[in-house]
Amino acid sequence: MNTGKITLDTLHPSWLPQQPEAAMLRLDKLDAEISGNKWFKLKYNLEAARSEGKTHILTFGGAYSNHIAATAAACRQAGLPCTGIIRGEAPQVLSHTLETALAQGMQLEFVSREAYKNNCATFEERPDTYVIPEGGHNAAGARGCEEILSLFPTGHFTHILCAVGTGTTLAGLINSATPDQTVIGIPVLKGAGYLEAEVKALLYSGKTRHWQLLHDFHGGGYAKVKPALIDFINTFFAETGIPTDIIYTGKLVYAFHELIRQRYFTDNNKVLLIHTGGLQGNLSLPPGVLSL
Ligand SMILES: *Cc1c(COP(=O)(O)O)cnc(C)c1O
């Protein structure tokens, strides 16, 4: 994968004063299908599968999962057959995400929400199969995300902001940040208090670091999209030319906007926002809602 397409863009939307300085690391430019952070999370998982001689990838997700879309595309590129265990009964009409995964050659198996919750472990038993947990949430996933901050010189940023689902990407960022930097995660799920422990489980011990999760910016919960968010995403695109998605990165920038309004940062802060991609998720909206 050519990480040379990734850029570091200075941000000047109308609501951002001269200070603090802000920039966005555009992981969304990496690839349309293996989007943003998902490629970093898959990198060492696929490498491990190969070195362990596994011939099949198995992973898990919901009908709109960026992780399912990315795994399907990455396995196709790697020439590895893969199966996606999809939460919920098979729908009459497949989501755009699942259609694309299927077209990439991923086998889809639908399981009831109950069975999905209880039985994920039972899928791990075939010896030829390498299992990637839901959302790529494991140490190999976090390790790939350690490479994100070295794509560009980023040591001068005082704060790093990232949207959070499972916290894998955030853990990689925290593990690779300098001791002077503060890493801030914006969970997009409501009531995600369990995340602190999940992130901590992926951190290397014995290093001082500053990080926190700000739980007030989920905007109603996972995949809940209020009209104000749509307006915000459209305006941000009109002002900066940067497309964001309704599930993760739109909420990240919206949170940043709120933090600016609350004067959370001081004038000499330098803020780096990580654009984790996920734009394929916007395709599940009716056409014309977003003007990106
Ligand atoms: C999956 C995803 C995330 C969440 O990443 P985690 O490592 O699970 O926290 C953030 N942004 C986008 C665009 C994603 O697709």
- What is the H-and-E element order? EEHEHEHEHEHEHEHEHHE
- Oligomeric form: single chain
Give the overall pLDDT as a whole number.
Answer: 94
Bound molecules: pyridoxal-5'-phosphate
Q: Report the sheet-strand fraction.
A: 15-25%
Q: Total number of helical segments? A: 9
Summarize the amount of helix as a percent range.
Answer: 25-40%
Spatially, the strands of the biggest sheet line up as 1-2-10-7-8-9
Rg over CA atoms: 19 Å
Show unreliable segments: none
Which class of secondary structure composition applies to the elements? alpha/beta
CATH-assigned fold name of the largest domain: Rossmann fold
Q: Summarize the biggest pleated sheet.
A: 6 strands, mixed
CATH class of the largest domain: Alpha Beta
Q: Which descriptor suits the 3D outline?
A: globular
- Separation of the first and last Cα atoms: 25 Å
> What's the architecture of the largest domain, going by CATH?
3-Layer(aba) Sandwich
Domain Tryptophan synthase beta chain-like PALP: 34-277
Keywords: Pyridoxal phosphate
Organism: Chitinophaga qingshengii
Cofactor: pyridoxal 5'-phosphate
